[in-house]
Specification:
This protein has 201 residues and is mainly α. It contains 11 helices and no strands. The longest helix is centred in the first third of the chain and has 20 residues, at 26-45. The chain is globular, with a radius of gyration of 16 Å. The two termini are 27 Å apart. Residues 40-58 have low confidence and may be disordered.
Length: 201
């Protein structure tokens, strides 16, 4: 699932993915896009499958460390009134932008599906109020783009109002990781771990 979204984010077409990975079907692509479209609703409603809880509880140590790192920062953002569901939603937006950028770098060297003025480097290079304004505009504009970008960012809003905390999330927690090189199961573990913590609160 996460690999499919990464390939699409890196600019590969559905036809190219199906050609390169004949074990996949068009239904797999649709399922990945449907997941991306519905993810925001699922985390806020707490409807992510409870059958996956045991897997999240037994996740590898590396995954657990990342979950704890991301979760501890969520507790800081809670002081600003950000809900757990909103936090995971914002992570989804930011991680997609980061992974889409990673696919444009070696060894992938793929064209980016994200317009250059709203890509990951455009966020990393900013700070303070300009960063908050640019991120807010980024999610709004991408929600009006066709295809997968609209599916992911439709009606998206920036919920992290403190520019300093937004900068830390982008620069210290997300930018320092190479997310595309993580195994798909690891990325799934991370989200499941966060969602599990959300259900327990």
């Amino acid at each position: 699932m996460w690999d499919i979204l990464g390939w699409l984010g890196g600019g590969l077409s559905v036809t190219e993915i199906l050609t390169d990975y004949p074990e996949l079907s068009s239904e797999d692509i649709k399922a990945a896009l449907q997941f991306a479209y519905q993810f925001k609703d699922k985390v806020t409603e707490g409807s992510y499958s409870s059958t996956r809880t045991s897997r999240a509880e037994s996740m590898p140590k590396d995954s657990s460390a990342l979950v704890n790192k991301l979760w501890n920062y969520c507790n800081i953002l809670r002081d600003d009134g950000l809900s757990y569901g909103d936090y995971v939603e914002q992570l989804t937006f930011l991680l997609f932008l980061k992974m889409a950028h990673e696919r444009t770098q070696p060894p992938y060297n793929q064209p980016s599906i994200v317009p250059e003025e709203y890509d990951w480097p455009s966020l990393v290079e900013l700070d303070g109020i300009p960063l908050e304004h640019h991120y807010r505009r980024t999610v709004e504009i991408l929600g009006k783009e066709p295809g997968m970008l609209r599916a992911i960012f439709q009606k998206a809003q920036n919920k992290i109002q403190d520019p300093a905390k937004l900068k830390r999330l982008i620069a210290d927690l997300i930018d320092k990781e190479s997310w595309s090189t993580l195994d798909a199961d690891v990325k799934g573990d991370i989200y499941e771990g966060l969602l599990q913590k959300t259900r327990k609160t």
